[in-house]
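Workshop exercise sheet. Pairs work together: one partner reads the sequence aloud, the other fills in the structure field after running the prediction. Swap roles for the next sheet.
Pair: D.N. / O.F.
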Amino acid sequence: MHRLAQLPLLLIAALIVLPVLAVLGSVLQVDAESGQILVEMARTVLPQYALTSIALCLMVAVGVGLLGAATACAVTLFDFPGRKTFEWALLLPIAMPAYVVAYAYTDFLQYAGPAQTFIRSALGVQGRVLPEVRSLGGAVLVFVVTLYPYVYLLARAALAERATLLMEAARLLGAPLKRRIKTIALPLARPAIAAGVALALMETLADFGVSSYFGIQTFTAGIYKAWLAMDNRIAAAQLAVSLLVIVAVLLKLERHAQRKMRFAANKGARAGSAEARPVALRGRHLLAAWLVCGTPVLLGFVLPVLFMLRPLMAGWGSADAPLPWAAFGAWAFNSVKLASLAAALAVSMALAMAFTVRRSPNVLSRGVVQLAGMGYAVPGAVIVVGLLIPVGALQAAQPSWGVGYVVTATVLGVVWAYLVRFSAVALQSIQSGYSRVPLSMDDSARTLGVTGLALMRRVHWPLLRRSTLVATLLVFVDVMKELPATLVLRPFNHDTLAVMAYQLARDERLGEAALPCLALVAVGLIPVMLLSRSLRDKA
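Structure field:
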């Protein structure tokens, strides 16, 4: 590839990798003030941050692993009434941002909420009758019921390929059901479970909404405290390095587990699997399957939606607490505007990267793609700190350029953060589309004189339209739900649905927060429908 043609690719690489390099480079910066802050935090709060983060991750890992594996086994290895419904219903909690679920449970279960008020009235007792929702245990529950679909999806795919056939063979050899599950199903699903748990833990570590609202002192909370409360970006960045190292380990674990998953379809085996049927369930086993599959759907989607609908309906037309429809329109417009802009830019970058790798699969193009793939694993808090460090340094060096104003007072900064974080989502979808376009089509086009951008326009684009649409929708939905980067980098008077849901809930105005929360849930259903349709087409 000509050097000039490599320039856009190098710019994309710089755009994506700069925030991470800025955070890593903060380790080398010696600053008396930041050093004093870190020493003081290490003496007082950092041990608590570390212990809380470790405890949270361990409990979430166990919870999502058990729940995801159990639901995947139930719908894959067994046959029972309602199984087809549960196959897609178990995906519904993906539509729920974790912080929305936290607000919903807090509104319903807090001391003055409907649940405790009703119990106190019915039993004639005083005081708290239910455990405090805003606690480490409450955060674990929220993360488990919203993140288990990562494990469910991967484990279900792993089991659907070969588990049923191999378990049938083991049954014919006299192995009982428990032994078949223990020696065949679980070993087959183990890499998928590990990959799903790693993804769930990356989301847990990246969270800001739940930990902030529940008052959980995690590393993310420490980063924001060092940055906003103590006004020291270098100290915040040096704390972010620790979080980035943990995320890198989880990303390595996830990729290692993905490499272990071998789902290459054996056509002969699949053709012969018609005789291998899932085990039919009756009686108490049927009730157990319903309980295993129904509980996460109830806790992760149905109840939070109902809890949010209650204050919304109570405030409908109420003079005491009117619904903020005018403000809601402005929040929705800002959210859609930012999400549309970020989605268009992310998909354009992803198309450029995927086409470059397709056309010239050299070290540079593959390296840029790998860098873009890392962005989604980087927490929003780390990206924000990584953006503002070089911007602050450039602003101090050249005040006349107004770089700080451009990045922090316009949409440029927040869209930049979105691109760093979500370009990987678009790239994965478009690369998946490219994998279904045989290279022989490129060779045939070249023999007819179609090369360069004409190859993309006339040959690739018609075949990539569906993948591009999916990528656009996925990035759009992710940006709509993104909280940390939007909260800090949004321009003045540019509140979004996610930001206002957080701020209203933080101010204990949960009834007003219900409207933006439900709007986010409605938008989040889009990828669930796409995913459900994709899985149904593959079945």
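Discussion prompt: The chain has two domains: 18-310, 315-539. What would you look at next?
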